């Protein structure tokens, strides 16, 4: 039986209340739900791309520096930064895209500026130059003004005027690595799989630069060689997961794996084919996982909170307070600042 829901929050609540047994959640949806239904559910499977089925994560974000780098994170001040860019609807949320810079760069408080401009100004003062392509904000006029006032954050781009890489208007991981290796960059924040492809560490990809001239920078300031099979990552994003009610998770898991067999025998029964189409994206397959939700949604270390603190939201009843708490968690999940504080009226 299919239970109609409005969104992932509604699905999570229905599972908590016993009105639904299981559902598929993206990493962000699972992270959001973990604050509220962690004890009510278990992760019984994840859904991975068939070509990367052995990869434990959907992606890992790493920082790559030149091999001559030998300082601390604070010594990155005055360096040249290459970023993959912001693209609406992209795989990386703002929380991931800004994780490195929020960890490394502290934001001084200037109450006369918006939160986003405080961040941009701090980045502009910390890095000598950068390519940070794509829309920084959704308002075009404000975005253009920010890029005009803090133009050094576009200097390393192929087109500083439009703040874009030549290969893609909103940037790309491969272009960010080219920015590092051929355009004067000192550090690039990119997905690990593109690092392996770019430096010829993955079969079928020719090396575009000498891997011995670069290394991985860790959050603690240490470095590791590029060919480390499990290098330190700044963010580790899990695959989409199948969450099931805790009381039926053990019995449901083997059933799901048998229903969603990765090499189905044609033709499948109509109900089984419908379940497959609902749960499994093209070129993906199910993988058995047994985990607490809170362990499944690890995303990396804490980032610094914006100096503007939080916005206080007054609520007048329990239901309204609960809705506010969900919104607060969603804001944190997507990297939106300032945060929200839910204050219950007395």
Overview of the structural elements:
By secondary structure, this protein is α+β, with helices and mostly antiparallel strands. It has three domains: 8-54 and 238-296, Periplasmic binding protein-like II (D-Maltodextrin-Binding Protein, domain 2, 3-Layer(aba) Sandwich), CATH 3.40.190.10; 59-236, 3-Layer(aba) Sandwich (D-Maltodextrin-Binding Protein, domain 2); 310-344, no CATH class. It has twelve helices and 13 strands. The strands form three sheets. Strands 3, 4, 5, 6, 7, 8 and 9 form a seven-stranded mixed beta sheet that branches. The protein has a four-stranded antiparallel beta sheet with strand order 1-10-2-11, sandwiched between helices. Strand 7 (214-217) and strand 8 form a beta hairpin. Helix 1 (8-17) packs parallel to helix 2 and helix 2 runs antiparallel to helix 12 (318-333). It holds the Pfam family Transferrin. InterPro entries: Transferrin-like_dom (IPR001156). This is Transferrin-like domain-containing protein.
Q: What is the terminal separation in angstroms?
A: 43 Å
Number of distinct beta strands:
13
> How do the SSEs run, as a string of H and E?
HEHEEEHHHEHHEHEEEEHHEHEHE
Helix proportion range = 25-40%
Give the overall silhouette: globular
CATH level-4 homologous superfamily of the largest domain = Periplasmic binding protein-like II
CATH class call of the largest domain: Alpha Beta
Average predicted local confidence, pLDDT: 89
CATH architecture annotation name of the largest domain: 3-Layer(aba) Sandwich
Radius of gyration: 22 Å
Ranges where pLDDT stays below 50 over 5 or more residues in a row are none
| Sheet of most strands | 7 strands, mixed
Strand content: 15-25%
**Could you say which structural class the secondary elements and strand pairing correspond to?**
alpha+beta
Number of domains: 3
Number of helical segments with 4 or more residues = 12
């Amino acid at each position: 039986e299919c239970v109609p829901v409005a969104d992932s929050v509604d699905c999570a609540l229905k599972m908590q209340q016993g009105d639904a047994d299981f559902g598929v959640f993206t990493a962000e949806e699972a992270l959001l739900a973990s604050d509220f239904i962690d004890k009510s559910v278990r992760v019984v499977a994840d859904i991975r791309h068939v070509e990367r089925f052995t990869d434990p994560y959907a992606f890992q974000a790493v920082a790559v520096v030149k091999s001559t780098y030998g300082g601390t994170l604070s010594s990155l001040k005055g360096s040249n930064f290459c970023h993959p860019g912001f693209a609406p609807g992209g795989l990386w949320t703002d929380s991931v895209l800004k994780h490195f810079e929020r960890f490394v760069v502290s934001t001084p408080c200037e109450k006369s500026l918006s939160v986003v401009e405080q961040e941009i100004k701090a980045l502009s003062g910390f890095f000598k130059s950068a390519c940070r392509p794509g829309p920084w904000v959704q308002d075009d006029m404000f975005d253009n003004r920010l890029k005009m006032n803090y133009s050094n954050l576009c200097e390393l781009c192929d087109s500083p005027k439009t703040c874009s890489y030549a290969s893609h208007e909103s940037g790309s991981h491969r272009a960010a690595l080219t920015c590092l290796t051929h355009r004067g960059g000192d550090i690039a924040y990119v997905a690990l799989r593109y690092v392996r492809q770019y430096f010829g560490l993955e079969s079928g990809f020719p090396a575009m630069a000498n891997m011995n001239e670069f290394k991985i920078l860790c959050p603690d300031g240490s470095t590791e060689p590029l060919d480390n099979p499990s290098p330190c990552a700044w963010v580790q994003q899990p695959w989409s997961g199948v969450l099931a009610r805790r009381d039926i998770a053990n019995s449901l898991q083997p059933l799901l794996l048998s229903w969603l067999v990765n090499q189905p025998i044609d033709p499948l029964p109509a109900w089984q084919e419908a379940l497959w189409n609902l749960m499994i994206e093209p070129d993906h397959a199910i993988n058995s996982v047994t985990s607490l939700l809170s362990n499944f949604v690890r995303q990396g270390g804490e980032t610094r909170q914006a100096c503007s603190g939080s916005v206080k939201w007054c609520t007048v009843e329990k239901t309204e307070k609960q809705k506010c708490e969900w919104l607060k968690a969603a804001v944190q999940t997507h990297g939106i600042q300032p945060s929200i504080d839910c204050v219950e009226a007395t």
